[in-house]
Amino acid sequence: MVGRTLFDAALSGGAQALGQPIGELAVGKRADWLVLDGNDPYLATASADGILNRWLFAGGDRQVRDVMVNGQWVVRQGRHAQEEDSAREFAGVLRSLLG
């Protein structure tokens, strides 16, 4: 399927471009994970590579439940660990710019 081809190429090309041990589940590779929300109706009614196609071409970030970067959870249940701090700082920047 198209989504699988694009996703695999992105993993491989991204790892090559960055020169980092990423892009696959293997010993010595960095632990980066993305967990999709299996309760999302659009994903729940797909199977195999159809899930990947629906996420890549129609779902986006609303279907991402959890994200791990380098072994550390940064998004849990759809909420970034620093979301509130980021929103507060962004509001401060906007106040300064529009002030």
Offer a quick outline of the entry:
With about 100 residues, this protein is α+β, with helices and mostly antiparallel strands. Helix content is about 50%, strand content about 15%.
Description:
The chain is an alpha+beta fold and 99 residues long. The protein has helices at 2-18, 41-44, 49-59, 83-98, and strands at residues 33-36, 64-69, 72-76, 79-80. The chain has a four-stranded antiparallel beta sheet, with no helix packed on it. Helix 1 (2-18) packs across helix 3. The N and C termini lie far apart (50 Å).
Please give the structural blueprint.
Blueprint lengths: L1 H17 L14 E4 L4 H4 L4 H11 L4 E6 L2 E5 L2 E2 L2 H16 L1
Antiparallel strand pairs: 1-2, 2-3, 3-4
Defining traits:
single chain; 99 residues; 4-stranded antiparallel β-sheet; alpha+beta
Number of helices: 4
How much β-strand is present in the residues? 15-25%
Rg, rounded, reads 17 Å
Secondary structure class reads alpha+beta
* Sheet with most strands: 4 strands, antiparallel
Give the helix level as a range of percent.
40-55%
Distance between the termini: 50 Å
Overall outline: globular
Question: How are the strands ordered across the major sheet?
Answer: 1-2-3-4
Mean pLDDT: 91
Low-confidence stretches: none
Order of helices and strands: HEHHEEEH
User: How many β strands by DSSP?
Assistant: 4
